[in-house]
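Dear support,

I submitted the protein below through the web form. The confirmation email said the job was done, but the results page showed an empty box. After a refresh the structure appeared. I'm attaching both so you can tell me whether what I see now is the final result or a partial one.
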Amino acid sequence: MFSCPSVNVLSFACGCDARTKGGEVRTFREVTVAVLMWPLFAWSQTSERPGPGRPVETVFGIGIGVPLTLPECPISRDGRYEIGLPRSSCYRHIGATRPGTQGSIERSMTEMYFPMTERPAMGVNHYALILNGNVERYQFSTLGIKYQESDLQQLNEKFGVPTVLSRPVVQTVGGAKFEAVEAIWTKQGYTVKFVSSSGRIDSGDVSIESDVAAEAARKAHELRRSRERPL
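What the results page shows now:
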């Protein structure tokens, strides 16, 4: 298998751990997501809420372009999220120093938690990006190239024929080569991306991103570039 790669916003394959000052263990995935999303949050503070007529899609019952309706996960007496699976579906703020104090969500990266009886039919490590109070991006990891055909079939059933479909060859550190799947569905108001091998052959990614989130990311990138020191 691959070693843990440098991770970007679209790559959530690694499970390396990091420990916060408060002693709480965070996966490398959680820390990276929170850090890389911050410029996008900062830019979104000046953007307006999308109009009520913007197209909305649902993913596992969670709407894209509308507020997150799930409750926050239970919090223990010591102020931390309770350990273990919840009794009903809920979310946790990633990087929250004091869970339960945010009030209404305006800008946040949240992780979805589902009990066994409500777990999604596809994927693991489910996250939602909240901008201006609305879910503007939903993403989750898949189990790699072994299940890529069944994953692609489920996505085709949900979103139709891909706008773009390719099958690149990926190679492990040991030299073994495999055919992966990369697909994009361009829809009105949002885009779906599927990569069956993201840094390693046993982990892939699916993202459903609204045009609002894509525009926010573009603006954040432009802002970051404008502040860079010239050579």
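Response: this is the final, complete result; the empty box was a page-load delay. The chain has one domain: 17-226.
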